[in-house]
Specification:
The longest helix is centred in the middle third of the chain and has 68 residues. By secondary structure, this protein is mainly alpha-helical. The radius of gyration is 31 Å and the shape is rod-shaped. Helices cover 89% and strands 0% of the residues.
């Protein structure tokens, strides 16, 4: 019966396996950090969008008041059609900006949920 005294080959295989485990642990930790960073970025973007939406809604309300006041002035003859159309254009643009913000909110929310789902799935 022959038995190697130093078991160099077996020790080398154990070291290779340990290095491979360490590499996998580092990759997993890196992925976890990436997912956390993405989730934080999407969360911050959602908060920013919510703030922008609140502000844009107030802008729409303000432009609506301006348009209504200009319309009243136009009816009594103290304003021109140009001014009325200018107020109306401003109101329409504000509403379009609000619609764009409202449309982008669910997209960011879905991306956040997708990233969080990845975190729980362990990817």
């Amino acid at each position: 019966v022959g038995m190697p005294l130093f078991c160099r080959k077996a020790r080398a295989e154990v070291q290779k396996a340990n290095i491979k485990l360490e590499t996998l642990d580092l990759k997993r930790d890196g992925k976890r950090r990436d997912i956390i960073a993405k989730a934080q970025a999407f969360s911050a973007e959602l908060n920013q969008l919510a703030t922008q939406i609140r502000g844009q809604r107030q802008i729409v309300v303000d432009y609506t008041r301006l348009y209504q006041a200009e319309f009243i002035k136009f009816q009594i003859g103290e304003s021109s059609l140009f001014k009325l159309q200018s107020r109306e254009n401003s109101l329409i643009n504000a509403r379009l900006d609000l619609a764009k913000l409202l449309a982008s909110y669910p997209r960011v929310e879905i991306e956040l949920l997708r990233v969080l789902g990845r975190a729980y799935a362990g990817e």
